[in-house]
């Protein structure tokens, strides 16, 4: 079943204002609402006195009209009494400043009082709602780490960090060794000498910093795990999810998603922005557990609580297109944020389906039309999933390492992953994301962008995948560092040398916008001529063959990219960051064929496959008409016709074909 919903805050409305909400929801075919994530103060107005009847009444009224409820644990904002009583549970930033109450996300997940109070409210809510008709699942908290609060520098965190390190390293000698703490006299004799990487005159030891990033992420995961396990025990018939933030970099979502039945994410695209950015985050979120929801889908102008600025109005057709894009990339539920714009508070400007006055206008009508379309395709969508032969390795420790030490100015690990992703998408293929221990068996091609933290186990896994017939693509900075974030004392690309069949002779970060020309080399090269910047590596081939070389200047003739035949497969090493057009050419050459060729730049094509065949989604994200040629004419499920094989798409148009 496809869930189609809205985020609803009954505590923001008087009964008179709320009177018309449920009939309007029903007319728009909304079948689920998410509620309660900031209402701890209403659920527990005094410590230990719980009030659920106000929410029960809403759940029951919704249920009567066939609308289910996803409840949230409200732990993101403890009531004022809790903070007054336990001020020590407030977070501190790296400079030691308190993160004060008055907004949200201000409590430290390592503070024992906060953990205890959070545990109690989750327990009470779980018990109260376990058997209530209409409640189908839970969202824990809200967007862990939002407003850059993943990393807290308070004393609770300091002592929890020491415990975390003790568990990982057992003794100070091991930690000194792992961190290379001889540098700048950073060696420890006692655990209580270790502190957090708080504000200091120069940059922290990268290994210390990476462990702090890991610890901070683990803190969020531990908090999620506690709620997940408690809710699963109390409410075995409900699902438990958390609303992630797509490409948010600070939490290892691979680990966090293990403690969900499926993850969700919150999608706020801008009209006219690069349409593959939301797709990237849909596919990242789907990859954690194979399915996902969009728990907050933008449905009106945004309204930034910090700047006070109101975002742009979605253009006609945008909300519908964003919704179908989520479904096309595998979402099984889409909930709009929010049902109606709030009259008060920091997000007054953050609009929903309805404006402040609650009048159903253009955006409401578009949501209602989309709801009707989704209901029409419900049977065809049931049991279908996205399958793809392409994977990108996206690992959070590598991201954190590169965040601290990008090497060259402007380098960003996630942007690099995204550039590869975009190139793959342009070929028509979807992408799964994988982590270092994921099973690669179902893929034909695995990109491992900037795989900088590498041990033998990861190299062996990728090598085995290549030897068995797969294609691996490595890019600059690969294999340079140990998992502890120290440098390997071996030639780059370290543990990848054997599978890539090369060594790196020289690395060259470019600081002043210099470019190098590269040209194809060898016989049939997948690498086109291009101008590259930021960072280049000069490669010395062993078993590998050059596929690109530098075409001018001091590096003229030196090797820039290689191909190595490895067992039944192939390993490419790109010693340069290919610009977008060149990356598209490269991806098209190394990926399996896709049934639709020459896809226009604004058009996205995806497939969901089930027992009864595949659905092909064709979405024109642009404003101009586009033409796509399908392999043959197929039934189009939204219009009921059988157009093609040549298809004309209007701007913002979505078509769904049955293959
Ligand atoms: C996030 C949060 C919501 C709301 C919206 C709009 O996604 O989860 O609570 O704040 O942003 O700001």
What are the SSEs and their pairings?
Layout: E1 3-7, H1 15-18, H2 21-27, E2 32-35, H3 40-43, H4 53-64, E3 68-72, H5 80-85, H6 112-129, E4 135-140, H7 155-169, H8 172-179, H9 206-234, E5 239-244, H10 253-257, E6 264-267, H11 276-289, E7 292-298, H12 318-328, E8 331-337, H13 362-376, H14 378-381, E9 390-393, H15 396-404, H16 413-426, E10 432-434, E11 445-448, H17 456-467, E12 471-474, H18 497-500, E13 502-509, E14 515-520, E15 530-533, E16 535-541, E17 545-550, E18 559-566, E19 569-574, H19 580-590, E20 603-610, E21 613-620, E22 626-629, E23 646-649, E24 654-658
Parallel strand pairs: 1-2, 1-8, 2-3, 3-4, 4-5, 5-6, 6-7, 7-8, 9-10, 9-11, 11-12, 12-19
Antiparallel strand pairs: 13-16, 14-15, 14-17, 17-18, 18-19, 20-21, 21-24, 22-23
This protein binds alpha-D-galactopyranose (GLA).
Alpha-D-galactopyranose binds next to loops.
Structural class: alpha/beta
Uncertain segments are none
> What is the C-alpha radius of gyration, as a whole number of Å?
26 Å
CATH homologous superfamily annotation of the domain at 390-590? Class I glutamine amidotransferase (GATase) domain
Beta strand count: 24
The CATH architecture designation of the domain at 390-590 is 3-Layer(aba) Sandwich
Largest sheet: 9 strands, mixed
Question: Number of helical segments?
Answer: 19
The share of residues in extended strands comes to 15-25%
Question: Mean of the pLDDT scores?
Answer: 97
CATH class of the domain at 390-590: Alpha Beta
